[in-house]
Each structure stands twice: as structure tokens, then as C-alpha cells.
Write the C-alpha cells for this entry.
Amino acid sequence: MTPHISAQPQDFAKTVLMPGDPRRAKFIAENYLTDARLVTDVRGMLGYTGTYKGKPVSVMGSGMGMPSIGIYATELFKFYDVETIMRVGSCGAYQDDLKLYDIILAQGASTNGNFGAHFMPTGTFSALCDFELLYTAYNVGAKKGVKPHVGNVLSSDIFYHPIPDIWKSWSNLNVLAVEMETYALYTLAQSMGKKALSLLTVSDSLVTMEETSAKEREASFTAMMEIALETAYE
Ligand code: ADE
């Protein structure tokens, strides 16, 4: 047991899928996994382990933001021998060719925060995903007829940014979309010799100002979940 996870040492599978919302973790466990059992619920951050096509897989909420996913990813990698974490989340589009519900595989993450400085105080660390996971997920998506977008995302420390057009500076650097967790996840995975990939569904667009409702988001995450699970299975 760790300060934030009440599971026993062998309770987690080698691969953990991480949505931000713990209730989504419950939904995934109940709808996609076989024989899923609750393994942790500290602070309501639900975690489950079951099987997908016979292979053990866990799913656990990460909470919102880099400090939150940083705590759970560290404890899973370090104390539960987890090898792979796949974030399954949402993002806001920064490019006009990204439509609502499109899927992004985050090849790398930039940040307006300071998470990387704790690991590299004298420079700027580029946080990258695991290439094999990216390659597998891309091909799984393509085979399903879903062509994922691949590129850089911004992991932001702030959701309600006080400077209205600041996002355009990231957009001009071809950053595809904004979310709040991937930079921390990738930095931790790289620092511990582990694997990570973020799969993101576009839930809103800074370009068109379109957004989806919570109910629509629930339904639209199916394709992303299937890609993540098939990637875990490969
Ligand atoms: N996740 C989904 N949409 C987002 C946005 N617009 N900003 C930050 N995180 C997000």
C-alpha cells in the first residue's frame, strides 16, 4: 500500500489505463473488462483489475492536472511494478483540421508548467511517448478505420487561462491540442524506464468554440477505449 493507493502489491496488472475521471474508470471496468474487481478507492480514486480477452488489465482514475497524475503514476510505476500506463482522456483542439471526437495520439507533450524542472533544472526536457505503443495504437486505429492524428500536445497547468489568445502561440508551433496531464506522465515514464502513451478524444475546439456535452463525451470515447485495449492486448 502507498499513501494514495490501498491495493495489495500484486493487485495491478502490468498495463493500466488511466482516464481522468474515476467514474469513467468504473465504467470502463464494468463495460470492457471481464471479472473486474475494485483494488483501490482512496479519496474516491477508483482502480480496478480485470481481464481483456484473457489478458490482465487495470484501469484507474488519474484526477485532473499534472500533480494528480504525477502522484498516481509514480506510485503505480514504483511500488506496483506497473510497466505501461495509457492515458485515455479528452483534449481541446488547437488546429482547424481537428474535428470533435477525432482521436489524437500524443507523440510528445509540451507544457506551460514546471513539472520537468524537478527532473532537469538546467534545461527543457522534451517529454515523448513510447514509440512501440504509438506505432501499435496507430495501426490498431487505422485497421478500425479510425485514422488517429499524431503530434505534440500542450499539458497546461491552467484550464481557465487569463490571457484569451495565448493558445494561438502553441497552435502556431503546430501543437495539436491542449489537455492537462501528459507531460507529467511521459516525464515520469521516461525517468523510470517505463512506457506511456496518451490517447485523447477531441471534446472541444479553441478554433471553432464547439464543445461536447458530458453525455456525448461518454458515448464518443468508445473508439479510443477500443484502441487502448487492443494496444494493451498486442
Ligand atoms: N481537456 C479537454 N478540453 C480541454 C481544454 N480546453 N483545456 C484543457 N484541458 C482540456
In short: Residues 29 and 37 are 8 Å apart (CA to CA). The two ends are 29 Å apart (CA to CA). The first strand starts at residue 15 and ends at 18.
